[in-house]
Design a protein that fits this description.
Length: 135
């Protein structure tokens, strides 16, 4: 399997995803965590049960990531830090492709092994959040 393939300009899907990623990263950089609107967002599962959901800590991870505090991002949520990094890489790569860079990652087929690995990583992230048990 090749990881990089020669291609043309980014697809409409890639542009839409890059725009969404850029919006989320910009919001994480601009909006304060301790004031509305982000302070109004609480995890309903944690509020009801005391247990974190799979995405608990992602807002703090994104905010720390865009401020280049990578250790704090990983401590908030390893999955959130990885998603923030993936968003940043996708935005940068899409901008490069729009500027004429013609190499793009080859598509990866979602095999059962890759799906199992993704589920395992999500379970490991949730276990990390449960063991950390900070609000």
């Amino acid at each position: 399997m090749t990881w990089i393939a020669r291609s043309g300009p980014p697809s409409d899907h890639a542009l839409g995803l890059a725009a969404s990623c850029a919006a989320v990263l910009s919001a994480a950089a601009l909006l304060p965590l301790d004031a509305p609107p982000l302070s109004l967002l609480a995890c309903p599962l944690r509020a009801a049960t005391g247990w974190p959901c799979l995405t608990c800590g992602c807002t703090h991870a994104f905010a720390a990531f865009v401020r280049f505090d990578f250790l704090a991002a990983v401590q908030a949520s390893p999955l959130g830090a990885a998603l923030a990094a993936a968003c940043a890489v996708h935005v940068a790569w899409t901008v490069l492709r729009m500027c004429g860079f013609r190499w793009a990652p080859a598509s990866i087929t979602a095999t059962p092994r890759i799906r199992a690995a993704a589920l395992g990583l999500m379970a490991a992230n949730w276990l990390f959040l449960v063991l950390r048990r900070t609000p």
